[in-house]
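Students often ask why we bother encoding 3D structure as a string. The short answer is that it lets us treat folding as translation between two languages. Here is a chain of 63 residues written in the first language.
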Amino acid sequence: MIDAVISRNEKAAKDFRGGKDAAIGKLIGEVMRKGRWGRPQKWVRETLIKKVSTVSPARRLDE
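And here it is in the second language, the structure alphabet:
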């Protein structure tokens, strides 16, 4: 679920990795809306930060 949200919101993930801390809010909101599994927002935030920080963006062939 979280990985899917990150991949669908690559710009927000890239912005967060680039130092725009507010960009994580978009990802948190998306997970909270999609996730009906009752995880607290703090857990979602910490997990997103960990995953976004460790996942390198996919490189496109035209770059």
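Translate back mentally: The longest helix spans residues 41-54. Keep this in mind for the problem set.
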